[in-house]
């Protein structure tokens, strides 16, 4: 699940049927000629992809009514034994899925046409907007309130975002949701002339995939779900965000403990408590005198980033260390320049995030409920709870009638493979287990102690125990007879050479 701060268990056993015999035997599937009519030109700037568009109904209840344009990209299968197409969603809601064939290894790219798309409302697909990007200019106000009076400006701000979404994206806004995006995926399948699709989803994509499978179970060939959201109707989306707060606190504790074990490198103190003290010192100093683009809210986003990806632990800890030890905020400012929320693309992503989550499910309309619930959670998870609350609070004032989330049962789906780290903060393990239970045909590959978000084919995770099984599944349809436990990938060594942070194009 996306958590871009704009300001900033018992394993449940499940049974799985054997894969159909044909699923384990790769066969050459000719590319339907109709697909070439979709992809009409080389993509820019990545000309080794082909680009095109698919027209879909704005409102599926009125299929002959107004249309939206969905942007799609294709990286053609490079091998002779083509197995069809893989549709990909990298997460969000609000993330672009174009030009991402490097998300799978060479062997998978040989077997499949890799199809990326911008979901409705995102990027090149009839994009929406809620506010001027300058609304998210940094430094922002400290998200952690000292008292109830300090919460009032954030409540007003959330209401203004909801009002802005209705004003700037009103005609399209009611139709930006997960169910319609899943229907768009099936329109892409039809446009490509494919009888079925295989699907690979990460983070929010692990919710979109089961939604598609619930609506079109006979159209799913294979489904790989990486870093899984709780798809239970009781969790989508309000409870899932509260659960996320606790998981982020746990993951932050792990990062701060790691920093404390390398006090000879970072000089932020030995032990978790000492590192927290240094962090809060930096937070207080930035509150009194912000650095360029950086106040306490932005410092918190660095913790969020570290909770997502431990590949950034070294650079993020060094940026904090340089500020605390040397008074040098260069690293903090550089981070915000690279992750600036006040750009058109970032604002569009945030608008879609709010639209999908607010439209998908019912949210409390009473500020008192939000205040009581988040106050209670903040006692256990004080670091980031309020930042997450303000991110989602526009849903309390949403102008569009809210719906009940789609009930996921997994009925009629083929064997599914799920990948999950037990310390994932963005998609907590307990929620992933619940989705595992909701998908009776699923098997889970569990990285015990792993906390990075997005595990498969990641150059900064590199867990062969996970990668080999996921690749075998995509190529053969084979799932293990039972859930598999893998050891966690090693944590970064701050004394080693920096690792690559860019997911390569093919």
TrEMBL record:
Gene3D superfamilies, per database record: alpha/beta hydrolase (3.40.50.1820)
Signal peptide residue numbers: 1-18
Highest taxon, organism lineage: Bacteria
A GO term, aspect molecular function: hydrolase activity
Keywords per UniProt: Hydrolase, Signal
Domain Peptidase S33 tripeptidyl aminopeptidase-like C-terminal: 386-486
InterPro entries, per the entry: AB_hydrolase_fold, Pept_S33_TAP-like_C, Serine_prot/Carboxylest_S33
Coiled-coil blocks: none
Pfam families attached to this UniProt entry: Abhydrolase_4 (PF08386)
Protein family per UniProt: Belongs to the peptidase S33 family.
Protein name: Alpha/beta hydrolase
UniProt organism field: Kutzneria chonburiensis
